[in-house]
Write a structure and sequence with these properties.
globular; 3 helices
């Protein structure tokens, strides 16, 4: 099974976030899972979708 891979700039554009925000999320372990290939960072679309599903809330005070 393969999944499309996105570079940080591509993911940032899709989410409306800067690559610096994505780098901070990686540091904090707060964003989607990522793959490190040497010095390159890539994100699997499947992991992004799973992370987005986890961010879905019904109300503003939901944990």
């Amino acid at each position: 099974m393969t999944s499309e891979l996105l570079a940080p700039a591509e993911l940032g554009q899709r989410l409306g976030k800067s690559t610096a925000v994505l780098a901070n999320w990686r540091y904090l372990g707060a964003g989607p899972k990522f793959i490190k290939c040497g010095k390159s960072i890539r994100y699997r679309v499947a992991d992004i979708e799973a992370w987005l599903d986890q961010q879905t809330r019904q109300q503003t005070d939901a944990a």
